[in-house]
């Protein structure tokens, strides 16, 4: 099973549902539709209405983050895993580099992961090195730490996807070369296997678009994509899926 996951970030108003109508229509007719799952993470404001609408359709709705406390607490503007689940989300992203940069520590992420799983949310756990770490050949050390400091064997591993998102690639148009990406995906799977005793899906994120997606096809260790910018356009998101299976 492959995953095409759209992260809308701070984008979208109620009528942006038209983008999802188009994607849903395409998937419902796509001969490859049983080979993949399409997940969209709109902002919190749209989760409830979109989840209701797409409940029995071809798009699964998730959130982009969740708070580290549950179910209710005195934290202004925070939204807990319990609240997210109750409005219909199935997945949540945890550990996106945007949120790590805004202060999410490994301890915060650990409690987010535990609480999200407790609320039956499936997790897209993001990891990735920055440019300096890459230049200094620290990528594997960074990735390993991001995995072992947050995930552990007691967690329900069936509900976890790992998203490898090199920070230098997000929104920059730069993507890793195939050889590096293959090596990194194999490394991540090895670390994950040590933690859980089995491998988990590993997806790639960072400047994926309808043109470069073909290059990732050869890397069988990549189980799908986390797509930022290109997921805000129905045409681009659909073309990514089409070109991947072409
Ligand atoms: C992201 O922010 O998760 C992302 C992958 O963004 P983009 O596709 O725009 O690089």
Question: Separation of termini?
Answer: 17 Å
Given as residue ranges, the uncertain stretches (5+ residues, pLDDT < 50) are none
Number of E-type strands: 8
Classification by helices and strands: alpha/beta
Reported CATH architecture? Alpha-Beta Barrel
Task: Provide the domain count.
Answer: 1
Percent in strands: 15-25%
Query: If you average the pLDDT, what whole number results?
Result: 97
Number of helices: 10
Rg, rounded, reads 17 Å
Give me the strand/helix succession.
EHEHEHEHHEHHEHEHEH
Catalogue the ligands.
phosphoenolpyruvate
Secondary structure: helix percent: 25-40%
Largest sheet: 8 strands, parallel, barrel
The CATH homologous superfamily name equals: Aldolase class I
Question: Which strand order do you get reading across the main beta sheet?
Answer: 1-2-3-4-5-6-7-8
Q: What is the CATH domain class?
A: Alpha Beta
CATH domain fold name: TIM Barrel
Outline, from the CA principal axes? globular
Structural write-up:
The structure is a single chain. Helix 1 packs parallel to helix 10 (234-245). The two termini are 17 Å apart. The protein is built from ten helices and eight strands. It has helices spanning 17-29, 44-54, 81-86, 97-101, 106-118, 131-135, 139-148, 178-196, 213-216, 234-245; strands at 2-7, 36-41, 59-63, 91-94, 122-127, 160-164, 202-205, 224-227. Strand 7, helix 9 (213-216) and strand 8 (224-227) form a beta-alpha-beta unit. Phosphoenolpyruvate binds next to strand 8. The site of phosphoenolpyruvate has 12 residues, from strand 8.
């Amino acid at each position: 099973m492959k995953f095409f996951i759209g992260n809308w970030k701070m984008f979208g108003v109620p009528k942006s549902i038209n983008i999802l109508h188009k994607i849903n229509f395409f998937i419902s007719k796509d001969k490859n539709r049983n080979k993949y799952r399409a997940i969209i993470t709109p902002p919190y404001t749209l989760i409830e209405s979109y989840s209701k609408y797409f409940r029995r359709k071809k798009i699964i709705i998730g959130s982009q983050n969740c708070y580290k406390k549950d179910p209710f607490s005195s934290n202004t503007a925070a939204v807990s895993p319990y609240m997210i689940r109750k409005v219909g989300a199935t997945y949540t992203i945890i550990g996106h580099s945007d949120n790590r940069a805004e202060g999410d520590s490994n301890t915060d992420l650990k409690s987010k992961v535990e609480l999200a799983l407790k609320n039956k949310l499936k997790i897209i756990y993001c990891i990735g090195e920055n440019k300096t770490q890459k230049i200094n050949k620290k990528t594997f050390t960074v990735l390993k730490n991001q995995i072992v400091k947050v995930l552990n064997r007691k967690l329900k591993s069936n509900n976890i996807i790992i998203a490898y998102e090199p920070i230098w690639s997000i929104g920059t148009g730069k993507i890793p070369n195939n050889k590096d990406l293959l090596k990194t995906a194999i490394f991540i799977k090895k670390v994950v296997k040590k933690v859980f005793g089995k491998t988990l899906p590993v997806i790639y994120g960072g400047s994926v678009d309808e043109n470069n997606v073909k290059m990732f096809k050869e890397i069988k260790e990549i189980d799908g994509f986390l797509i930022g910018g290109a997921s805000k356009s129905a045409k681009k998101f659909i073309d990514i899926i089409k070109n991947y299976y072409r």
